[in-house]
Amino acid sequence: MDKIVLRGSVFDGSDYVEDGAVVVDPSTGLVDACGRMGEVDLPANAQTIGGEGVSVIPGLMDAHMHFFASKTHNLLEWVSVPETLAALRSVRDLKALLKAGFTTVRELGSKCGTYLSQAVDEGVVDGPTIIPSSKSLAQTGGDDDPLTLPLEVSRELSYSYYCDGPWECRRAVRMVVRDGGRVVKVYASSSFAQGGRVRRQFTVEELKAIVDEAHAAGLRVAAHAYGEEAITNAVEAGVDSIEHGIGLTEEVAFKMKSKGIFYVPTLSAYVGSENAGSPERRALVQRHLRQ
């Protein structure tokens, strides 16, 4: 297969070259050479893409996203979108991600993430590499459980496994492993999806069971956590990353650093909506963005 030459202003992650070229081997996806035009050996018969006015950068990564395939920011719609329709809409979203420059995404809870990941890996559809979590883990009656539906209907429709107590939590992690998940996503707190006050969800004992079972399977744990109590519980349990982290204090941040826990603030999810919702929500989000 002929090599591909990407031409334009090149940023390789550390250096910027105005008139540069990147030689890519499409059979492996690896970069053979990168540098200034005239200093890079260009293979014969190479396909050239780009040129003046084009920027060439490393692939972008989105560390927190969902293939909900919904049209509104509404929990009931998120769970009501049929799995097949969610997958078909998400194929469109995969193409949009690629066009925007994303080559890797970490997908933290949906009905179709593991299937989409497999389809991309098999070359069935075009899209970025997907690191899927399969369904997320949530407590019964928690913020990820649409309370207007009968419980069994919620269980059937949800993109989460509902689990209560350490042993149910361990079983839910095993279901994620069975599904082909490559990371475990747990809702350690409520959010603003159903309104009301932010509160912790799952006990430290339950979170520790989730972390232990996930680590035994070689998977990391990402904890959705709003509020100091939930974040502190997740950190104590030994999760690998705190997602959103609205209400994170400096003291807890230092604990995270000492334990090697990553922080994924998802700032873009709140820009533009910082003045929406209850006064409590507005205060938390505005503080989050200021930090």
UniProtKB/TrEMBL annotation:
Keyword Hydrolase: yes
Annotated Pfam families: Amidohydro_1
Signal peptide extent: none
Alphabetized GO MF terms: hydrolase activity, acting on carbon-nitrogen (but not peptide) bonds
Keywords of the record: Hydrolase
Domain Amidohydrolase-related as annotated: residue spans: 56-266
InterPro entries given in the database record: Amidohydro-rel (IPR006680), Metal-dep_hydrolase_composite (IPR011059), Metal_Hydrolase (IPR032466), Metallo-dep_Hydrolase (IPR051781), OTAase-like (IPR057744)
Protein name: Amidohydrolase
